[in-house]
């Protein structure tokens, strides 16, 4: 079945142009009984709330794994058995030597190891897996979430990161008492395998995202997934609207750079504003790290011990702090779709409530460059994560409490940047953001101002097509866009 067997099929006759001008979704019909059968046959095993819950569960497991990986080393760094196996990372009481740097390196770079070199190699391998997860899971979940609930659903994922951190602290505390065996640190690290196995099994029951399917010419599957996610028949007007918006976003992005690879298009601007949008994703992930939150996440137990608190109490306080971290993140779930992303980001920069910043990269970039843009933003996350963790040990050894002043200054720097440069995405579909950036480009104004307006036409409408440059003012389809869809 060719892609052109299903609307939006672009023809050259006047009747087709007239139909496109009116373009009410009630008028959009499937023009092939064969295609109908293909859509039905492509239906996912799950649909409606069950499918949404399954996607959220698997994606959430990925984020819990991410958080667990971040927090698990905190209490292990000063565990007796860990120091026995890796004496290189044990910091002497007088703070001399390069042990603080080596300790930072272990945290930044871990597990069934018997030597320092093996530990580093293991940490690198697990880092590759975690990096792949954190660059793909947010994009997948964003593309499978309805605009009205996407913020709260993805905020749940952010909360699950802190949930992973919390349980890692309590598990570390539980195994702290096994002081006569290396199980004291090996078991907490190995428990990550359970979360990874859940993801491996769970993902086999889930469909690809409809945007990825449509982009790769698998139209029937894309429509079937949209139908399943909305729990409505594929002929429903809302399902058709979503499908048309995705197809037209693909058409717009294709004819603006049809011969370029998605990676190269990241560095272009024009109507799609690719570089600006990718750069915002990179910056927001950088901000997540330079707030200094991982100063606490990775070193909570050690920092409390530096204050003269004994081993047991330091671990209890760290675990309690991780629990508060998780509970505080739940507040944003109820607020994200009500008051918007920008206010929460501003409040987060002021108050260090940063769990919501992970959703932004997946929302602000276009479909064609979403994968490489998310990869760049995730690389930014881990690069600055590495930087913060690497400098923390030496910083405390050299400038002591002034380390906190450095991070306080960086937090203050974030506030005006978010206010001036980050657009609001609340209540808009991923394709709607294409319209926002294109309209800002056309009018020569900031995307932030456009994102706060209430008169932006929805993706898939004739007005949006004109803004994106895939139709003329009379409703006719631009010749280059027509060729793009026919070629597809």
Short characterization:
It is found in: Membrane. One of its GO terms (molecular function) is carbohydrate:proton symporter activity. The protein is mainly alpha-helical and 488 residues long.
Structure report:
It is a single chain. This protein is an all-alpha fold. The protein has a domain of 306 residues: MFS general substrate transporter like domains (Growth Hormone, Chain: A), CATH 1.20.1250.20. It is built from 25 helices and no strands. 49% of the residues are buried. The N terminus and C terminus are likely disordered.
The overall average pLDDT, rounded, is 76
CATH topology annotation of one domain = Growth Hormone, Chain: A
Which architecture of one domain would the CATH scheme give at its second level?
Up-down Bundle
Separate helix tally: 25
Computed Rg? 25 Å
- Structure class: mainly alpha
| Strand proportion | under 5%
Helix content: over 70%
Instruction: Using the coordinates above, name the CATH class of one domain.
Output: Mainly Alpha
Number of beta-strand segments: 0
* N-to-C CA distance: 12 Å
Biggest sheet record: none
Q: Which homologous superfamily in CATH is the superfamily of one domain?
A: MFS general substrate transporter like domains
Order of helix and strand elements from N to C terminus? HHHHHHHHHHHHHHHHHHHHHHHHH
Low-confidence stretches: 1-30, 353-357, 359-363, 477-488
Shape: globular
What order do the helices and strands come in, and which of them pair?
Layout (H helix, E strand, L loop, with lengths): L13 H9 L10 H9 L6 H24 L1 H4 L3 H6 L13 H10 L7 H28 L3 H30 L6 H8 L1 H12 L6 H6 L3 H12 L6 H19 L6 H4 L8 H17 L2 H14 L4 H29 L1 H11 L8 H5 L5 H30 L2 H20 L8 H14 L3 H5 L10 H7 L10 H9 L1
């Amino acid at each position: 079945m060719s892609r052109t067997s299903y609307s939006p099929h672009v023809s050259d006759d006047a009747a087709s142009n007239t139909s496109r001008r009116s373009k009410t979704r009630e008028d959009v019909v499937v023009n092939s009984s064969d295609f109908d059968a293909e859509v039905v046959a492509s239906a996912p095993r799950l649909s409606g709330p069950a499918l949404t819950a399954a996607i959220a569960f698997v994606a959430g497991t990925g984020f819990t794994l991410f958080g667990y990986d971040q927090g698990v080393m905190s209490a292990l760094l000063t565990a007796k058995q860990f120091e026995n196996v890796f004496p290189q990372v044990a910091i002497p009481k007088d703070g001399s030597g390069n042990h603080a740097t080596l300790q930072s390196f272990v945290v930044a770079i871990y597990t069934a190891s018997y030597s320092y070199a093996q530990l580093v190699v293991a940490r690198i391998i697990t880092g590759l897996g975690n990096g792949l997860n954190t660059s793909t899971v947010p994009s997948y979940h964003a593309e499978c979430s309805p605009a009205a609930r996407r913020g709260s659903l993805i905020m749940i994922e952010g909360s699950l990161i802190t949930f992973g951190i919390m349980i890692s602290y309590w598990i570390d505390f539980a195994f702290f008492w096994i002081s006569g065996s290396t199980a004291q640190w090996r078991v907490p690290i190995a428990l990550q395998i359970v979360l990874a196995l859940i993801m491996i099994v769970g993902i086999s029951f889930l469909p690809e995202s409809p945007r990825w399917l449509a982009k790769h010419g698998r139209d029937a599957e894309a429509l079937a997934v949209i139908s399943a996610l909305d729990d409505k028949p594929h002929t429903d007007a809302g399902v058709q609207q979503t499908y048309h918006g995705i197809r037209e976003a693909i058409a717009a992005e294709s004819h603006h750079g049809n011969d370029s690879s998605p990676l190269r298009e990241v560095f272009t601007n024009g109507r799609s504003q690719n570089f600006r949008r990718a750069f915002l994703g990179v910056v927001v992930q950088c901000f997540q790290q330079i707030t200094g939150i991982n100063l606490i996440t990775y070193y909570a137990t050690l920092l409390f011990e530096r204050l003269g608190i004994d081993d047991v109490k330091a671990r209890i306080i760290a675990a309690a702090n991780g629990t508060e971290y998780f509970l505080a993140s739940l507040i944003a779930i109820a607020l994200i779709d009500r008051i918007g992303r920008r206010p929460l980001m501003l409040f987060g920069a002021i108050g260090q409530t940063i769990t919501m910043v992970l959703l932004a990269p997946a929302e602000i970039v276009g479909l064609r460059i979403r994968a490489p843009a998310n990869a760049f933003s995730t690389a930014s996350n881990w690069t600055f994560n590495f930087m913060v963790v690497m400098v923390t040990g030496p910083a405390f050894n050299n400038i002591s409490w002034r380390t906190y002043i450095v991070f306080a200054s960086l937090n203050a720097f974030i506030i005006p940047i978010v206010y001036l440069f980050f657009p609001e995405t609340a209540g808009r579909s991923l394709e709607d953001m294409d319209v926002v950036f294109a309209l800002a480009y056309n009018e020569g104004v900031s995307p932030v101002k456009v994102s706060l307006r209430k008169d932006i036409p929805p993706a898939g409408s004739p007005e949006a097509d004109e803004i994106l440059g895939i139709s003329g003012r009379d409703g006719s389809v631009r010749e280059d866009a027509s060729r793009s869809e026919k070629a597809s």
